[in-house]
Amino acid sequence: MKIFLGSDHQGFHLKEAVEAWLKKEGYDIEDVGDKILDPNDDYPQFAQKAAHKLLGSGEKDARAILICGGGQGMAIAANRFKGIRAAVVWDEYEAKMTRLDNDSNVLSLPARILDGDINNVKNIVTTWLNTQFSAATRHIRRNQELDDI
Fold it and tell me: Which ranges of the chain would DSSP assign to H, the alpha helix?
């Protein structure tokens, strides 16, 4: 599975830890930035890079993980792109539900809440990566409605 990974300065250290762990687990990771800790960077540019990469990858199972201070900014920016379903997730239950019901393809993590608890982050990411979309008719219809907006 191809995973595009991005963060701003507030999520930089957590992104680096997640990237190292996912590579060790055998995932194909592409870091879309920021590549250095820059306190003046802006999250929308990394969300945009990840969205473009994800949408242009042509890989059915490709996903993106974005990390910023609260997770909300990255999700808001990523959701501006048709076909992106970014969800802010802070626990395993939400990770599971956003995959089952919403077929989320972008995981947005709040560093202010999760930084320093790498085991929790690993559990969230693992749950999100391993949960399949339910493909229930109502969820397919709702996702199509989102894409039609």
Answer: 12-24, 43-56, 72-78, 92-100, 111-114, 118-130, 137-148
Distance CA 148, CA 132 (A): 23
- CA–CA separation, 17 vs 118, rounded Å? 8
106 contact partners, CB below 8 Å, separation of at least 6? 50, 51, 54, 63, 64, 65, 66, 75, 78, 84, 85, 86, 87
pLDDT: is 60 or 126 the higher one? 126
The residue to which tokens 């560093």 are assigned: 111
For the record, the structure tokens of 43 come out as: 């999250």
DSSP 71: S
End-to-end CA, the chain: 29
Active site members: 68
Q: pLDDT tens-digit profile of 27-68?
A: 999 999 999 999 999 999 999 999 999 999 999 899 999 999
pTM of the model: 0.97
